[in-house]
Amino acid sequence: MKWMTQREAKSYATSRKSAIRGSVKHHQQLYDATPAELKAKLETLKHPHSLMCIDYCALCYRYISSDSKCPLLGCSCDGNCILSWRDSSRAFYKWIAIPTPQKFQAFKDAELLLLNKLKSLE
Taking burial as the number of CB atoms within 10 A of a residue's CB, which of 70, 76, 96, 114 is the most buried? Predict the structure, then answer.
């Protein structure tokens, strides 16, 4: 898989709409990745958490040091957007710690919910 780069993620941070589009692309890659592709990507990183956080998230690049709220924090939906990210991240870290097929599927399930939330913000 040709992964989104940090530079590419940062380039999406020019507007709210673009940052959401970049975040959708990033999370679509995470959702589509096989365990082997994810493991190979993780081996290239100093910190595995960076794949789920600021280093590859266009929304983080746009909002981390902004007075505006990230759309996942400030959306007007049922309030579960940030919970979707939290659940996906937790499932990801659990799979990294103990890479079983069940934990990978739990990550995929949580990632799909997050991806759907992000797409609803577009």
Answer: 114
| Six token digits for residue 34 | 């096989």
Angle between helix 101-121 and 16-32 (nearest 10)? 160
- Give residue-wise pLDDT tens across range 10-66: 999 999 999 999 999 999 999 999 999 999 999 998 887 788 877 888 988 888 777
Helix 81-97 to helix 101-121 angle (10° resolution) is: 160
CA-to-CA separations, 67 to 28, 43, 93, 105, in angstroms, rounded: 27, 34, 29, 36
Which among 79, 58, 71 is positioned nearest to 10, based on CA atoms?
58
Q: Which amino acid is at 25?
A: K
Which residue, chain included where needed, has tokens 């959306």? 75
